[in-house]
Amino acid sequence: MKRYILVLLSFLLLLSSYSYSQSLRVEGIKKSLSTAKEDSSKVRLLNELVHELSYGDKYEALPRVYQSIALAKRISFDDGLYDAYDLLGVIYLDKGILDSAEIFMLKALRYYEKKDDQQSLFKIYQNLGHVHVQRGSFENAESYYSKEYAIAKRLGDHRLMGNAHNDKASLYINIGWNSIEVKNDTVAQMNYFEKAVPHIHKAIGYFKQAEYERGVALAYGNLAILQEEMYELDASKQSMQAAMAYFERMNYTVYLVSAYNHFNKIYQKMGLYDSALFYLEKSLDLSRVLESKIDTRNVYGQFSSLYVQLGDFEKALSYHHQYDELNDQILSESKQATIDELEVAYAMNRRDHDLALSELENKKQKIVIVSGAILMIALMLMMFFFWKKGQKEKKLNIELAQKSAQLKKSNLLIAQQNAQLTESYNELNNLTAVVAHDLRTPLNNLKALNSLVKMSGSLNPEQHELHDKSLQVIEGGESLINDIVNLTRMENVAEVSFEQLHLNSWMAEEIEIHAAYAEQKNISFEMHASTDEIYLVTDKESLTRIMDNLLSNAIKFSNPSKRVLVMLQDTGDDVTISVTDQGPGMTDEDVTNAFQRFKKLSARPTGGENSTGLGLSIVKTLVEKLGGTITIESQLGVGTTFHMRLAHSKGNKQSLNEKNRSGIASV
After folding, report:
1. Which of 154, 157, 180, 381 has the smallest count of CB within 10 Å of its CB?
2. Which residues touch 276 (CB under 8 Å, ≥6 apart)?
3. Which pTM value belongs to this model?
């Protein structure tokens, strides 16, 4: 395909002749760097050197840009850091490593957008467009080129407008190539090539207005190559002659080699082989003067191809041997350069890794210090409250001893003493609630500090893991406090409010509430009932708390992709609700201790969830308030079933069924 002959228009405009004057600039920058201090001026010098080297010695450019990034990070110089990221993206783009190129370009883009740096944004949009062109993602490329054009138009910069039109032409040419390669549609290919031509002419016009001779020269050269693709050979010759006039005046010898090769192809297509040989000889001489092995090798290949057409197979074979010999040298040098580049990249990555580890250790120390201080304060508060509790208990014991001596004197005094004991018990429960309430403050402070750590900058995977673990510990503490408060409140509230429920519908709603949590572990629910019309007179709020605990426990202790079964059984005298999971099951000791407070059982949640040891204690307390019973049936490795048995109502079932038929049966 001619695709490998035609150079991308936008890339040519990014290149410049690596001439003697540029070599002097590189040496001058290196000399300045040798005496520069480790500050922002050195970062700017390094970025300037990388910019110059990216037009020539890209192997030296890569370690230099990593050096700039490391220094900019060390001295917190953001402008220099993101300029270096931009340059690194361009280097990776030239190497064809598109994913890495896009990563660093997007880093720079976010920074320039915050600063509203229009010139830098133009360059980034242009380079991101080039990345997507090479990927064949033409819609994304067009989007970036449109943003690039909008900036150029807004700034009224003729040189930027020339670049924008040149990029548009590049896009059309690549879409044309894609049409022929993917769809074999030569008509579409030529249509896109024709759409590209006016954009190149506009680019030439804008470059002339900007007096940007290099842009004019390269645009003429690109137009010549495109016209040759369209078989407009005379027009192609004229465009290349116009380009050569600029190349010769500006002493751009590198591009003269490409121009001579282009004339060779034109004259071969015209059948003028003597003229083709003439330009090949000029191209070979200039390549040797420039000591460009790649250009020399390519000319040898073109000589071999031309002599095959002329029927002189001996000369064709001779040039082919020279092509192979020089190609082997280039490949050998390229391999060594790649090895050197990888060694430098490894050293830079190692240094960055060590720096990141050092920063991580510092952050860890800060977190440990702050967390330790908060935990110490919380511990002191707990010790204070327990001391106060002990003092109250001591005082209470003294009072009890005094009152006991007076029991013999009067029943009235006994009643008064009982009242005082009840009041003291309530104070004890209130104290527990106060302790639980006040412990929330340090936990909330810990959670806020955790959020600040995450907001302070991007975290690596290890830091994310530490952050998530500490947040999980805090949430576990909050769950424990909530369970303590709920348990205390339930023990102190003697009255419950009974109402009639259609148990089938109510249970379906409860299961639906827990479905989202179950789906996170790919766990499914099944519900079976002995009849569709099961009614129950009970306290709805208490029953909701019971089922929330049982259903969430079933999900929490079940392995992913398992099933939770809910059974409703109307036995006539009472209703049995059973919840069965497919978890690890319980030992005999676990079954014995399951309903005791703060007892951690041997089975652990399968998804790393929190478990306070109070959930089943709360369940048992509520079931007993409703006048029911709850039992456990479990088998290790198979699962666990909780059976809750509740009476139909305080009245008789016959009157309840009559009430159902009169009103509620229509639910």
Report:
1. 154
2. 263, 264, 265, 267, 268, 306
3. 0.47
